[in-house]
Amino acid sequence: MRAGPSRLELREGGPFRLLCLPYAGGSAGSFTRLAQQVKEDWTVVAVQPPTAGEHDKGPNLSELADFYADLLAADLTEPGIILGHGVGAAVAHRMAQRHAANWPPGLRLVLSAPPRPGPPACHLLGLDDQSLLSVARSHGIVPDSELPDELATRLLLPELRQDLAVLGPAGWSPEPVRPPVHLLGGRDDAAVPPALLAELADQLGARGTRWVRGNHLFVLEQPEETFAALRKIAQCDPPGPTATLRTLTGVAQTGDQNTAAGARVRP
């Protein structure tokens, strides 16, 4: 069970900051293995979601985005990356929408295995515990473990339900935003398969999509490959004013020219 909210510095380094927003059921500690793989002089910071007791109904997407923006106020500088995984990607995207006016040009937005657009989370929240646990395990949205069902239900599902509820009845809408957007996906992700991520790249006007071996929780299970992808993204030049305007109007941009094998870049 997690305790929150908090800002956790996982690695002390230079001015380049990797800011991590957790997936449904995750925590700041979910990015510990990723921080251990960082070979560059980066500072790695992760946020801990508020606990259910601090919000009677739990925060909605906009409230959580503002909450994280306040928690990370001193960290929202350039150069850097905001990495949101799963539901955290939707929260990071909402942060970019609501705080566009003050967004540093060199702060890249990486949406990692973002949720399906629309309200599918409501369907999941309507399932009983056993059904939700079964779906979560089959889609890889909870970590692999040998916990018996009763213990897994008690330890994993309350936070999973709380975080899925953040998306609300309308779910998440992948609209273009001012910051440069990059997508990150798992090759074997059953929750966010490659075809869906390709559609999201088009809708968001993403500069590029990079792939990591593994299922939905590749940031947890494949930290070395995840960092390699993030390092490539960090080496991309941020867009100039013209490219930013094209992002806002949904027109395709010229993306990463020296892309690692396996990456998908928009023409």
From TrEMBL:
<dbReference type="InterPro" id="IPR001031">
    <property type="entry name" value="Thioesterase"/>
</dbReference>
<feature type="domain" description="Thioesterase">
    <location>
        <begin position="17"/>
        <end position="232"/>
    </location>
</feature>
<protein>
    <submittedName>
        <fullName>Surfactin synthase thioesterase subunit</fullName>
    </submittedName>
</protein>
<dbReference type="Pfam" id="PF00975">
    <property type="entry name" value="Thioesterase"/>
</dbReference>
<dbReference type="InterPro" id="IPR029058">
    <property type="entry name" value="AB_hydrolase_fold"/>
</dbReference>
<comment type="similarity">
    <text>Belongs to the thioesterase family.</text>
</comment>
<dbReference type="InterPro" id="IPR012223">
    <property type="entry name" value="TEII"/>
</dbReference>
<dbReference type="GO" id="GO:0008610">
    <property type="term" value="P:lipid biosynthetic process"/>
</dbReference>
